[in-house]
Metallo-beta-lactamase domain-containing protein
Amino acid sequence: MVIDPYLSDSLAEKYRGTRFPHRRMMPAPVAPGGIAHVTAVLATHAHTDHLDPGTLPALLAANPDAVLVAPASVAETALARSGIAPGRLRSIDAGGTLHLNPDLIVAATRAAHESLETDDQGRHRFLGLAIRCGGATLFHSGDTIPFEGQVEEVRALGADLALLPVNGRDAERRANGVPGNLTVAEALGLARRAGIPAVVAHHFDLFDFNTVPRAEVEAVAARTTDIRLAPARTGVIYRLEEDGR
């Protein structure tokens, strides 16, 4: 399974010469067509670094049996950017559940990428996704900040591990059309209140204008003892044990 893959430089091309040129801070760790054995590709929303036309066609062509899971509110965009046939798209909205196979279930929650947004049919534009597989539940919040009712929705998932964005937010980014996310402290607060024992902190070290220093995340991880906090790093395999460690 692959979640929100951005393995191209499509945003650097789109924003070349602008205030925020979206140049990668590191090369893509793998070519989109170099990932095999994929059952499903999941997209939490339609921002290009999560639903990337420079990544999806090659990734899904290399895995012809894989489906693309995307918010129902952006289904047409997902089809256009991926190039797949409509039969390979699985649409979902907050509160919905998809049974992709007997051992792979995806459930959706709301997410607030600075705000909760819906389309003209009331379908949410930003989602969190809970993946249940092999007896464990992984929660990927999508891009989000805290919002009313979030803790209750997430706690109900019974997640063993959360993948949470920690690049934060500020007025300058917001004024330039770059909505933000949780801070590291907010991510830990959500995990504690929702009863999640382990967190992989991510969504940093990709664009220099939209990150938080890695040293800051690592320092918080080093002094956090009640929750296992792992700052995401390429080339590392993270294994979830039964005790959440």
Notes: Residues 184-194 form the longest helix (11 residues). The chain has one domain: 2-231. The two ends are 21 Å apart (CA to CA). Residues 2-231 form a domain with the Metallo-beta-lactamase; Chain A fold (CATH 3.60.15.10).
